[in-house]
Design goal:
It catalyses: L-glutamyl-[protein] + S-adenosyl-L-methionine = [protein]-L-glutamate 5-O-methyl ester + S-adenosyl-L-homocysteine. This is protein-glutamate O-methyltransferase. InterPro entries: Bact_Chemotaxis_MeTrfase, CheR_C, CheR_MeTrfase, CheR_N_sf, SAM-dependent_MTases_sf. Keywords: Methyltransferase, S-adenosyl-L-methionine, Transferase. Its EC number is 2.1.1.80. This protein folds into two domains: 66 residues; 196 residues, 3-Layer(aba) Sandwich (Rossmann fold), CATH 3.40.50.150. The N and C termini lie far apart (59 Å). The protein has a seven-stranded mixed sheet. A three-stranded antiparallel sheet has the order 3-5-4. Helices cover 43% and strands 19% of the residues. The chain is globular and about 60 Å long. By secondary structure, the protein is α/β, with parallel strands linked by helices. Helix 1 packs across helix 4 and helix 2 runs antiparallel to helix 4.
């Protein structure tokens, strides 16, 4: 299916206006694949015809469907594994000491897609009940896509999805197989929460978060939009909290209020926060 340059530009502009994400030339090859299901559902013959419908503005909900189809929702349980090892073995023990007085932790997974990262975090706590007994653990997952947030709340995954990152024992312990797929146990679902949120909007409230994960989200933003997103993340981070980014992301030159933690490689903190983190 041939896609005209004008249609590509209109789709790129729509995506950036709604989410801040850029549809670079290197990503435009996936337009046809991303929109094919929507075209079939609506009986639309081509992307150029889809653009005509969008421009006429007769179906406002269609533009939302288009944006959600264009988002990159790639994720899986315990993605890349090493970041979760760092959280489990290094970050959480320190946070447990720092928050002993309140016995409360708040964690935010920004750009959580279908929720696998959030449920992975929940499993870290659920599999260490002796350490976290009596604690209030608030794990929040947010995404700009209403469809993805709805899927995350339901917690149901295909056989392929549930096998990505999970061992057999974890699958059996935390998921139940049914007609619709593998669903996270009720206990696991009750331990997390989800909401629709755009990183370019004011940070989620109330309070600040001890740990924020925003992995492989900022890659798709232009420089000025990325700085705005960093401002939102920084404002939501506790004075002695940590931010975790994706492997190809950094705060250097983009977030003057944040710096790499020399003792926790892979995590970022507020500048001059060492004195606050006793």
């Amino acid at each position: 299916m041939q896609i005209s340059d004008s249609s590509s530009r209109i789709l790129a502009g729509l995506l950036e206006a709604r989410t801040g994400q850029q549809l670079t030339m290197s990503r435009r090859w996936r337009l046809e694949t991303a929109l094919s299901q929507l075209l079939r559902e609506r009986g639309i013959a081509s992307i150029d015809e889809l653009i005509t419908i969008l421009v006429m503005g007769r179906e406002p909900s269609l533009s939302t469907r288009v944006v959600e189809a264009l988002l990159n929702n790639e994720t899986y349980f315990f993605r890349d594994r090493l970041p979760f090892d760092l959280i489990k073995s290094a970050a959480l023990p320190v946070l447990a000491r720092r928050r002993e007085a309140t016995r409360t932790l708040r964690i935010w997974s920004a750009g959580c897609s279908a929720g696998q990262e959030v449920y992975s975090l929940a499993m870290l706590f659920a599999e260490d009940p002796a350490t976290w007994a009596g604690w209030t653990i608030d794990i929040l997952g947010t995404d700009v896509s209403e469809t993805m947030v709805s899927r995350a709340r339901d917690g149901t995954y295909t056989q392929f999805e549930v096998q990505r990152g999970l061992g057999i024992q974890q699958m059996i312990r935390w998921f139940e197989e049914g007609a619709g797929g593998w669903r996270a146990s009720e206990a696991l679902r009750k331990s997390v929460r989800f909401q629709v949120h755009n990183l370019l909007e004011p940070a989620v409230h109330p309070g600040r978060f001890d740990l924020i994960l925003c992995r492989n989200v900022l890659l798709y933003l232009n420089e000025s939009t990325r700085k705005k997103a960093f401002d939102r993340l920084s404002s939501a981070l506790a004075p002695d909290g940590w931010l975790m980014l994706g492997a190809g992301e950094t705060v250097i030159g983009q977030a003057p209020t944040l710096e790499a933690d020399r003792d926790m490689r892979g995590l970022y903190r507020h500048r001059d926060s060492s004195a606050k983190a006793a």
